[in-house]
Amino acid sequence: MSQIQHSIREYEPKDKAACITIFNSNVPEYFCDAEREEFIEWLDKEDRAPYYVLLDGDLVLACGGIYEDAEEQMTGLAWGMVLYSKHKQGLGKQLTLHRLELMEKLFPHYAQHLSTSQHTEAFYKKFGFETTECIKDGFGPGLDNCKMRKEVKR
Ligand SMILES: CC(C)(COP(=O)(O)OP(=O)(O)OC[C@H]1O[C@@H](n2cnc3c(N)ncnc32)[C@H](O)[C@@H]1OP(=O)(O)O)[C@@H](O)C(=O)NCCC(=O)NCCS
User: pLDDT tens, position by position, for the chain (154 residues)?
Assistant: First the structure.
């Protein structure tokens, strides 16, 4: 696995096309077509929690953010993805650790959640998340919605 540390900065509107390319590169194995509009809405949303891009020089190779649900006192990982051709090179881990640190900093008392498919459930288990429920075909045909939660020690 590559040990190169790529830079991470907050998403800017100029990154939108690159993020959509990353999304598209993961269809149909990890995302289904029907989720694209929802992802674009998330990118465009003005009142969401921060979203990030991971770069190699000027090239956006991965993106991902966090969400906040103040009413439910919940935070979580949102729309994390690595360009398909760059999977398994440590980028997903780098961006996930960055976001988990941020969640701890911004929302230290909130429960931590995420939803992912059966193909990436094991990835998030490595960061301490446990599956609470898996809804068959929850994201679309062949893509289950696995809900995960991390026990946060206070
Ligand atoms: C999930 C995802 C972000 C992982 O990114 P990645 O850059 O390939 O992962 P890394 O190379 O950083 O892997 C870190 C560790 O997780 C493991 N891993 C990577 N993908 C995995 C997977 N799908 N299942 C289980 N383990 C996985 C690696 O082997 C590595 O293990 P190690 O630390 O023991 O060596 C990537 O597969 C992806 O973008 N998927 C499509 C988008 C998606 O489904 N996102 C889910 C939330 S919306």
Answer: 555 669 999 999 999 999 999 999 999 999 999 999 999 999 999 999 999 999 999 999 999 999 999 999 999 999 999 999 999 999 999 999 999 999 999 999 999 999 999 999 999 999 999 999 999 999 999 999 999 999 877 6
Ligand 1 center to residue 74 CA distance, Å?
A: 23
Q: 88, 116, 117, 134: which to mutate for ligand 1, most atoms within 8 A of CB?
A: 88
Structure tokens, 25:
């590169």
Atom 20, ligand 1: residue with shortest CA distance: 123
71 C-alpha to center of ligand 1: Å? 30
CATH number of 7-111: 3.40.630.30
Q: In the sheet that 51-56 helps form, which strands lie side by side, from edge to edge? A: 7-10, 51-56, 59-69, 74-82, 111-116, 143-150, 129-140
Task: Give 5 Cα–ligand 1 centroid separation in angstroms.
Answer: 16
Domain boundaries, the chain: 7-111
pTM tops 0.85: yes
